[in-house]
Write a structure and sequence with these properties.
single chain, alpha+beta, Metallo-beta-lactamase, Chain A, seven-stranded mixed beta sheet, six-stranded mixed beta sheet, binds zinc ion
Length: about 260
């Protein structure tokens, strides 16, 4: 089995990435200390930087091919090349967004044309309502460039809480990172999984669960959500797909002595 693919019951998950930016952890987490980051073996390089990831996951469920989030589409973005190496963008039936940040909607269109020409696009209604407010959209080029054209093309559907993407995939509200952020639960043939979205941005938050990156729009809400979700995932031993965690982003939250840690596969 290739290292980028796992199966849960009858569901297949395929990890895709749009790039691996190198940055100081103090940039997204300015209230933390570099010594705390050094507690995590192998996380930082010799310059105290870590490798982030713009991750997407493709999901096969009940005969449908679904991709969750579409990366950033910077000049050196790799998502479409990675996708074409592992499958056919024209075969994608549904594009689902965990939330509407620029690094999750980037490859919706190129030069005004949908990159997934046969797909419908599903956005959380609460996040759509937030980002399409005129005063918010005015300062968010990714909404103007990558989301509103989907509405003009009549390609977008909005998801209410608990939306069933298929019989095996259901959204669950996990607000705070953005007001309408959702995660996705997977249940198939007795196996379970969880597509985390940006409930956590870095594996250090397994232990430092209070930490909020500067991207969290409502930090108090995201902190509460993160504790609830990570506690549940740890207690129930559920397989997680985490978009910003190291490739392929699949693993478990487990307890080692007094610390909760991320155990990637
Ligand atoms: Zn993100």
């Amino acid at each position: 089995m290739p290292d980028h693919t796992i199966t849960l019951g009858n569901v297949e998950l395929i990890s895709l990435s749009d790039g691996f930016p190198l940055r100081s952890p103090l940039t997204p987490f300015p209230d933390t200390k570099i010594e705390q980051w050094r507690e995590f073996p192998g996380l930082l390089d010799g310059n105290d930087q870590y490798t982030s990831r713009y991750g997407t996951v493709a999901v096969r469920s009940e005969g449908k091919l679904i991709i969750v989030d579409t990366g950033l589409q910077e000049a050196d973005g790799t998502l479409m090349d990675d996708m074409k190496a592992k499958g056919d963008p024209a075969a994608v039936d549904l594009v689902v967004f965990t939330h509407l940040h620029p690094d999750h909607v980037g490859w919706n269109l190129t030069n005004g044309r949908p990159n997934f020409p046969n797909a419908r696009y599903l956005a959380p209604r609460k996040d759509w309502d937030y980002w399409t407010q005129p005063e918010v959209a005015a300062g968010a080029a990714h909404i103007t460039n990558q989301m509103l054209p989907l509405q003009d093309l009549n390609l977008i559907d909005l998801m209410d809480d608990g939306y069933k993407i298929t019989g095996e995939l259901t959204t669950v509200p996990t607000p705070g990172h953005t007001p309408g952020h959702v995660s996705i639960t997977i249940a198939s043939a007795g196996e379970r999984g969880y597509i985390l979205g940006d409930v956590a941005h870095n594996l250090a938050q397994a232990h430092y669960t209070d930490w909020c990156p500067i991207f969290d729009i409502e930090p108090e809400v995201s902190r509460k959500t993160r504790h609830q979700v990570l506690d549940m995932l740890e207690a129930e031993g559920i397989m997680v797909s985490a978009g910003h965690f190291p490739h392929p982003g699949f693993g478990h939250f487990v307890r080692v002595a007094s610390r909760r840690v991320w155990q990637g596969i």
